[in-house]
Amino acid sequence: MTIPHNPPELIQPAHPDWLTAIRDRVQAAHNDPFFVTDCEGDLSVWRQSALTHVTRNSEGEITGWSTPPSYKVTDHILEIELDTWDPGEDPLDDQRRTDIHDLITARDHDRPRLLAHIDQLQQRLDRAEAALPGITQLAPGEPVKVIIYRTEHSEDLVPLGHYTNRDAARAHGEALAKHDTKQPGLTPGWIPDSGSPDAAEELSVFGPGEDDEDTTGYVVVPVTATSVYEPDAEAED
Length: 237
What we know:
This protein is α+β, with helices and mostly antiparallel strands. It has helices at 8-11, 17-31, 91-131, 166-181, 231-236; strands at 34-39, 42-47, 52-56, 62-66, 76-81, 145-153, 159-163, 187-192, 201-206, 213-226.
């Protein structure tokens, strides 16, 4: 498998609809968080915006509150009557308390953290793709194969540099050719060996006359690097 050489902006998928929907729900939860009260056997979930006399600690957590004397039906999200007043008295009530707290934690805390982690991973993928185009499109279970670009001179074929992208390899060749010729006003141009997008190419310089063209001997050669030894692939070559 050879990694496709599409520009990163062409192969990065758009966010799927389900991820966009999750982002919308997370934003709604951020704007309207819930709060769990557990008092005298009454386990309730309230919208924080409906609570009164709210006090918070330095981290923004609610430490004191009063339930409102009047409220909209949608302000009181859930109410469960437990058989016990305090945790540790009945396993079933404790499980119900845990389930409700877990649901609210997932809504108001876990989902934002997971989305932030997804964004961080996407940024890493974008950086990897910029460094090695196609690296993020590897198929699971297949060996890693990436194409790097070697700058060399056609006379001795000694590698002068290896790069993760063709532009950097070209820049190296152009700098060396400019140092060799020391002639101003020349325009560089890379001539591929064939019409293949993965063809090797040689640097020519044009000018200063209209028909002046000289080859420099500097070549950029695509090289496939793989993570495993494949005897069958070698035999085919």
